[in-house]
UniProtKB/TrEMBL annotation:
Binding positions for [4Fe-4S] cluster per the UniProt entry: C350, C410, C413
PROSITE patterns linked: ACONITASE_1, ACONITASE_2
Function: Catalyzes the isomerization between 2-isopropylmalate and 3-isopropylmalate, via the formation of 2-isopropylmaleate.
Lineage of the species this protein comes from: Bacteria, Pseudomonadati, Pseudomonadota, Alphaproteobacteria, Hyphomicrobiales
One annotated GO biological process: L-leucine biosynthetic process
Pathway(s): Amino-acid biosynthesis; L-leucine biosynthesis; L-leucine from 3-methyl-2-oxobutanoate: step 2/4
UniProt name for this protein: 3-isopropylmalate dehydratase large subunit
MF GO annotations: 3-isopropylmalate dehydratase activity; 4 iron, 4 sulfur cluster binding; metal ion binding
Top-rank taxon: Bacteria
Domain Aconitase/3-isopropylmalate dehydratase large subunit alpha/beta/alpha: 8-460
Listed CDD domains: IPMI
EC number of this enzyme: 4.2.1.33
């Protein structure tokens, strides 16, 4: 058989039937996660057709997008629309027999944080779910990708979806990771180079020594954020780190079953001579902490740079986009990005709300205070992460620094709950999208790593975290 990529192997092993000659297949999907925002119509469709869920045990339901994250958690939703969504969600879980983590459940959180914690994701699986950032699961050697409402309904009824094969792209990462540079900076650098549509139509495989040396959580960060370059699927070959992460998780196989599976999972990889449709290589040695200045995730610069001049853009549409972005962001070309003052600092989202992210941020906050005039919140990705951060003393570091310590949820990643910025407010944000209005109408978002957000919070402006790291706070 011809050499195959890991992506092709995962798709091939899940094809139920070829539907045409151009790569359209009926794909078996092993598991899914459902949220309150994209699942209601799918369940309404099942109800209308009198259908059952084919394999309720393969799904998990968590509320994450619309819930408040106030420090004191109650079951009540202050917003009536959100309350209706959550009530219908709970009703669907009950009627269709799917495991559901209520907002007060200690296992609750953002779906992309909770699913791996629960061991819902295993190498070799296909996980399709109603959220574009389901690529997170690629970090475990599964094919993760996002599906729309009608596909969710089709999946629930049959455990299959119609799927068109993607082109393949290998992103090979080499070199020593510089001091102060995180997986977030690396993926932002890739996006800046290939552009916000650079991976459109592709499934991405991350490879190379930087990836093997990276923690599983770091790989999740990259697998989620590469969606902002248009990727519709991500895979990373599973290794011992992935097995160590998953072993003993609630939904992971146990005993002899685990041993047999683990042996097989370690063989999952692209063949050495497999061909990719596109190859991208990056030596990370020169990557610096990055910050976005515009309203697209590829409008990013090193924290030491000046805000670029739109006049330097050759393509007229890029020039127009840059001008519009600068005006929306209220910035001036030529100013150092470090001179830009912030109003708000947000650490959270499925991209950067895991324990390693909180440890990075706490290192900067330790012994320092949030600058006057700045409001800072840390929103852990799950209640489990929250408990761990409290046990490790990180929560105390945050509150001592004047940071609000919240309950989990998508929160200020998108303005779909109580955590919304006011028009014109500027936020240093550990999230993945900086589109106009993403954090509230007229709100201005600067994407960066959690440690960089902390550096902005304590200085009151966008700042180079490297000048704070290793230097004790006052
Ligand atoms: C609400 C949901 C459909 C959406 C997504 O698919 O990504 C959201 O999570 C986002 O990050 O914009
Ligand atoms: S945290 Fe943000 S990116 Fe992630 S699922 Fe929620 S809204 Fe989407």
């Amino acid at each position: 058989m011809a050499a195959r990529t890991l992506y092709d192997k995962l798709v091939d092993s899940h094809v139920v039937r070829n539907l045409d000659d151009a790569g359209l297949v009926l794909l078996y999907v092993d598991r899914t996660v459902l949220n309150e925002y994209t699942s209601p119509q799918a369940f309404a469709g099942l109800r209308a057709a009198g259908r059952k869920v084919w394999n309720p045990k393969a799904a998990l339901m968590v509320v994450d997008h619309v819930n408040p994250t106030a420090a004191q958690r109650t079951r009540a939703m202050p917003d009536s629309g959100a309350a209706r969504q959550v009530d219908y969600f709970a009703e669907n879980a009950r009627d269709f027999g799917i495991e559901y983590f209520d907002i007060l459940d200690p296992r609750q959180g953002i779906e992309h944080v909770v699913a791996p914690e629960q061991g819902l994701v295993m190498p070799g699986m296909v996980i399709a779910a109603g959220d574009s950032h389901s690529t997170a699961y690629g970090a475990f050697g599964a094919l993760g990708y996002g599906i729309g409402t009608s596909d969710i309904e089709h999946y629930l009824a049959t455990s299959t979806v119609r799927y068109r094969r993607l082109k393949t792209m290998r992103i090979h990462l080499t070199g020593d990771v510089p001091f102060g540079v995180t997986p977030k900076d690396i993926v932002m650098e890739i996006i800046r180079r290939i552009g916000a549509d650079g991976a459109t139509g592709y499934a991405v495989e991350f490879t190379g020594p930087v990836v093997s040396n990276m923690s599983v959580e770091g790989r999740i960060v990259m697998s989620i954020m590469i969606v902002e370059a248009g990727a519709r699927g991500v895979v990373v070959a599973p290794d011992q780190k992935v097995l160590d992460y998953l072993k003993g998780r609630p939904r992971a196989p146990k005993g002899e079953m685990w041993e047999r599976a683990a042996k097989k999972w370690l063989t999952l990889a692209s063949d050495p001579d497999a061909r990719f449709d596109r190859e991208v290589a990056l030596d990370v040695a020169d990557v610096a902490p990055l910050v976005t200045w515009g309203t697209s995730p590829d409008q990013a610069i090193a924290v030491t740079d000046i805000i670029p001049d739109p006049a330097q853009q050759v393509a007229p549409e890029r020039k127009a986009a840059a001008l519009r972005a600068l005006s929306y962001m209220g910035l001036r070309a030529g100013d150092p990005i470090q001179s830009v003052p912030i109003d708000f600092a947000f650490i959270g989202s499925c991209t950067n709300s895991r324990i390693e992210d909180l440890r990075d941020a706490a290192e900067v906050f330790r012994g320092r205070r949030v600058a006057a005039g700045v409001r800072a919140i840390v929103v852990p990705g799950s209640t489990h992460v929250r408990a761990q951060a409290e046990a490790e003393g990180l929560a105390k570091v945050f509150t001592d620094a004047g940071v609000e310590w919240r309950q989990s949820g998508c929160s200020m990643c998108l303005a779909m709950n109580d955590d919304v910025l006011k028009p014109g407010e500027r936020c240093a944000s550990s999230t993945n999208r900086n589109f106009e209005g993403r954090q509230g109408p007229g709100a201005r978002t600067h994407l960066m790593s959690p440690a960089m957000v902390a550096a902005a919070a304590v200085t009151g402006h966008i700042a180079d975290v490297r000048s704070l790291l290793g230097v004790a706070g006052q």
